[in-house]
Amino acid sequence: MKKTIQYFRKNPGRIIFYSLLLLMVADAFLVEPKFLKIKTVSLSPKASCRIALFSDIHYKGDKKYLQEVIDSINRLSPDIVCFCGDIVEDKKYLEEALGFIRLIRHPVYGVPGNHEYWSGASITEITEAFKSTGGDFLVDRSVFNKEKNILVTGYVNALPASIEASSNAKKLLLMHYPMSAEDVKNEKFDLIMAGHSHGGQIRMPFYGALHVPYKVGKYESGLYEFGGILLYVNPGVGTFFIPVRFFCRPEITMIEL
User: What is the pTM of this model?
Assistant: First the structure.
């Protein structure tokens, strides 16, 4: 013990290094994964539509945290809520997770992610839960909310045929994979929203994500514009594989459009 103390006295730089390393690990595993933030994104000086966007819950039984997510959404009082896929990884958690979705006091519109299919989750059960909020779960379908004057389309494999909506309706497109936005770049939507990326979960300052899943490409997190299209990629509220986040807090995005 005495030799150890003498060693660190002679090498104070190592004390600083290991202390910082310990703080970083603690932050990544114990703090950031549930350090939820609300990010406001204003896309119009005369916004007429307020959208609460979240994605990638990956619910595994943490009731307290998911309740915090739901309460945060309700406090925002948006016109509608949009969800971009991945409720659960294991369908044994589906019923409990959908119970929380039903607690959202605003219409929730969503699309499935890869884990809905991989887990064998019932799309019918999910759709019923989303409809109970006044919204819908859209697999290559569109719905028009006449009260809010918003047309919402869910894209999985193909865009559905257009449906009747007012000429001045806000046109929103939901998808799971960010790169899918490139497939519809010639279509006219006011905003495309996606998830899946988790923002990389581990990000480094001045560099970005160390790794992102497939079908993310350069669209890691945040707002992108290309070909006249606006795409917002939500970094999710949950984690996958390793419950870790670093410089990548879970996010509910409040979009003013």
Answer: 0.92
Handedness of CA 138, 142, 145, 149 (dihedral sign): positive
- Kindly state the DSSP code that residue 179 receives in the 8-state scheme: G
Whole-number pLDDT of residue 241: 87
Phi, psi values for residue 172, rounded to 5°: -115, 140
Distance CA 200, CA 216 (A): 10
Tokens of 53: 């966007």
Q: Which pair of tokens denotes residue 129?
A: 């839960």
Q: Are the C-beta atoms of residues 97 and 248 closer than 8 Å to each other?
A: no
Report the 10 Å Cβ neighbour count for 24: 12
Contact 199, 216 (CB under 8 A): no
Q: Which of 15-24, 151-160, 229-238 has the lowest average pLDDT?
A: 15-24
CA distances from 79 to 82, 92, 111, 145, 240 (A): 10, 31, 18, 10, 29
Quote the longest CA-to-CA distance of the chain: 79
φ, ψ at 134 (rounded to 5°) = 100, 0
Helix (H) / strand (E) containing 196: none
